[in-house]
Amino acid sequence: MEPRSTPVFSLYGALLALGLLLSGCGGGPEPSVPTTITLDPATLDFSAVGETRQLSPTVLDQRGDPLEGTPVTWTSSDPAVSTVDAAGLVTAQGAGMAQVTVSAGGASGAATVVVTQTATALSKISGDGQTGDPGETRPDPLTVQVNDALGNPVRQATVSFTVTDGGGTVGAPTAITGPDGRASTTLTFGAPGSQQVTATVVGTSLAVIFTATATPPFDIQLRFLRAPSPAQAQAFAAAERRWESLIVADLPNTRLEAAAGQCGSESPAINQTVDDLVILVTLESIDGEGSVLGSAGPCFIRDDVDGLTALGLMRLDTDDLAVVEESGLLSAVILHEMAHVLGFGTLWDRQGLLTDPSATGGTDPHFNGADAIAAFNAAGGTAYVGGQKVPVESGGGEGTADSHWRESVFGNELMTGFVDPGVNPLSRVTISALGDQGYTVNSSAAESFMLSLGLGALRAQGPALHLRDDVLRIPIKVVNQAGQVTRELQR
Question: Strand 277-284 relative to strand 309-317: parallel, antiparallel, unpaired?
């Protein structure tokens, strides 16, 4: 019997039916789903608050193919460090570290954010340009502001404060900035004059300089009526500082209204409150070389118990100054004459401190202030048997007698009527005499000096400069605190 053949169309139909059956049972391509997300860049470093950077996500499906346009969600682990918007823009908010995460479906990716604020600007906020007394701690702190590149405050920055001029001190040499980016310290003034503190952000080159001025409790204001030479100006400034360092307390402010010519022929009209002493200085030709070098003394004094000088005058002869300067005695002469303006030898009689003056026939003029006598004894004066203490000059002519220490006893001390070659020490006796007159003084700042009794007063080799007639002889006006002249004293 012959085999039966299968028709071709029957096999094809079966296969087609099987395919349709399988298709109907879900055997088509698998749909794409977000599986992996990466971020570019993977790390963001910020140096300023407010700085922004863009993150770009790449979303891949299960086959590793990119899924363009897939919606994503952004979050930050610490919004205080960084925030992120719906488009992936990251903004630095504060120092620290955070994670920014992007999510789509069940997939996510993350980038590390590090915010390290960098100080790029340092500025002064308060405390600059202060004035005060030496040794005073100012209530106004020295305050600085530290900012980053976008002008935002940098916290936790270390600022150092260093005194660079004036010898003062700061309360804290370092300070840490707070949330406002500010750090502060206090300043205690040093010696009279300019003060300077440099503030620096540690680890950077950022620095600012605070300046201040320590004004002495006793303030001498020099007013030149004719311009001095550089050397003369330097000598006057040195004398001013020296006396300001020796007189250590303020005097009551005094209103002063002086007409032109009332303190020397060249003196201008003055209308001001004086604290503590104003000295007019005129450098002019007086009588040619070799005679009167100059004169100095009070013009207006206070109407109180001590009656100390408010306005005075120093006149120096330009015909003699060149010789004095060449001899190296200019500083000593100016320091000496300034003492006469303060009242040394020029106010003793009205203060009751000069006994037996030669001007009225006395033979042993002497200064009777208790402090000066004690200082005289301490300098070797206990052995003095030449008369009463403290011995005052009885010779030398008008303007020398009754206004200086006795040259035969004091020798080269600054306030005799002669300036000696070499050293002319400003002794404790002189400073104590000013204390007897009513000033508050620092006698411990005196220069070393001892009397040479029995051996003759110590004198340097060479001719002494006689300061003849160096006491100003014009009427002295007495004023009250309101500036009213209450009386006039004739000299």
Answer: parallel
- Determine the Cα–Cα distance for residues 12 and 315; give it in Å rounded to an integer: 139
Q: Is 261 exposed, middle or buried (0-12, 13-18, 19+ CB in 10 A)?
A: exposed
What's the token pair of residue 367?
A: 């200064």
Question: Does the CA dihedral 216-220-224-230 come out positive or negative?
Answer: negative
d(CA 161, CA 122): 13
Q: How far is 371 from 375, CA to CA, in rounded Å?
A: 6
Rounded Cα distance, 374 and 389, in Å = 10
Over the chain, what HEC string results? CCCCCCCHHHHHHHHHHHHHHHHHCCCCCCCCCEEEEEEECCEEEECCCCCEEECEEEEEECCCCECCCCCCEEEECCCCCEEECCCCEEEECCCEEEEEEEEECCEEEEEEEEECCCCCEEEEEECCCEEECCCCECCCCEEEEEECCCCCECCCCEEEEEEEECCCEECCCEEECCCCCEEEECEECCCCEEEEEEEEECCCCCEEEEEEEECCCCCEEEEECCCCCHHHHHHHHHHHHHHHHHECCCCCCEEEEECCCECECCCCCEEEEECCEEEEEEEECCCCCCCCCEEEEEEEEECCCCCCEEEEEEEEEHHHHHHHHHCCCHHHHHHHHHHHHHCCCCCCCCCCCEECCHHHCCCCCEECCHHHHHHHHHCCHHHCCCCCCCEECCCCCCCCCCCCECHHHHCCCCCECEECCCCCCCCHHHHHHHHHHCCCECHHHCCCCCCCCCCCCCCCCCCCEECCCCECCCCEEEECCCCCEEEEECC
Give pLDDT tens digits for 104-139: 999 999 999 999 999 999 999 999 999 888 888 988
| Highest-scoring range by mean pLDDT, 4-8, 76-80, 263-267 | 76-80
Nearest to 331 by CA among 471, 217, 426, 263: 426
* Cβ-contact 449, 465 below 8 angstroms: no
Q: How confident is the model at residue 293 (pLDDT cuts 50, 70, 90)?
A: confident
Q: What six digits make up the tokens of 206? A: 């950022």
CA-closest candidate to residue 392, choices 428, 417, 360: 417
pTM over 0.70: no
Strand pairing partners for 44? 113
What is the sign of the dihedral through the CA atoms of 29, 30, 35 and 39? positive
Give the number of other CB atoms < 10 A from CB of residue 365.
24
